[in-house]
Write a structure and sequence with these properties.
The protein is an alpha+beta fold and about 190 residues long. It has 4 helices and 6 strands; from the N terminus they run αββββαββαα. The protein starts with 5 loop residues before the first helix and ends with a helix.
Amino acid sequence: MPAKTAYGKAIQEKLEKTFKHLEEELKGLRTGRPSTAIFENIKVEFYGNPSPINQVGSLNLTEDRTLVITPYDRSMLSKIEKAINASDIGLHAINDGVVIRVAFPTPTGEDRKKWVKKAKEQVEETKIALRNIRRDDLKKIKDDQKNSKITEDESKKAEEDITKVLKEYEDKCDLLFTKKEKEIMES
C-alpha cells in the first residue's frame, strides 16, 4: 500500500532501500541447495577494481553439487581461490590450474539451524534499522509541527502513515525470513 503523505512517501523510499539491502544479504546466505548467489558479495581485484566473482568468470553448477568457476583471464585463478577461501561462506575453493572448483557438502541439521539463526539475526538487525528510520522521521515531524510548518492534524496523519508503512515493511521482512527459512530447511 503506497504512503499517503509526503512524509510517508519519503520514509517509504528509505525503508525500501533498507529492505532491498536485507534481500541482498539473505541471497548471500548459504542454503542446502548449491547456488551461485552466495558468491555475489565476494570481490576480487580485477584490473585495480574490486569486482564480484561473477564478473571475472563464468559460474556453472554441476549435478554433483560442485560449482565450477572459469575465469575470463587465467591470471585470476589464484585471486579467486584466495577470495573464496578467505570469505565467511564456509566453502573451500580448489584451483586446478584451469578452473576453480567449489564443492557444496550436504548440510547437516546443525548447519541448517545455524543458517536459519543467521538469517533471523539479519532480519532483526534490519527491523531495528527500519525502526530507527521511523524514529528519526517522527522527530522531524514533531520539529516541523513545533516550528509551525505543519498543523497538528497533518502531524497526526503523517505519524499514522509512517506507522502503517513501517508495519508493512516489518511484515515484508517476516515474510522474507519465512521464505528463506523454508528454503534452508527443505533444500
